[in-house]
Amino acid sequence: MHMDLVTIxxxxxxxxxxxxxxxxxxxxxxxxxxxxNDGRAKRWVVVRPPGGGTGLLLARADGERQxxxxxxxxxxxxxxxxxVDDFERSYARMAAAGVRFVTEPREEPYGRIAVFLDxxxxxxxxxxxxxxxxxxxxxxxxx
Length: 143
Prior knowledge:
By secondary structure, the protein is of the alpha+beta class.
């Protein structure tokens, strides 16, 4: 058993796709026409991080209630966690792509961390190994 998808409510599909694909490096794996339960047009849009894993269903807000949670799906807490093998390279690439980091990178007992905002305003942790572990991960000595 594994978790296949998690939904993120966004304002519009195309800017969200561009953010996750271009800025974060995810793959667009599905973008197909669909219908709401009452027959209105929508899209089924799924992006996944490199190597697979849990995907994100990018769902365009439909109505006032859904629009109200765009960017605040977990009440201002960090609700999403992106683990990378090379923290410095990922951080630099994401910052160059315009990703807004709201904290500076820091060391924690579990590795390097910096908090960033997705296109909707949700808070994410960028997580990587400690600087001591990174050379070992790159050489394949740590899985």
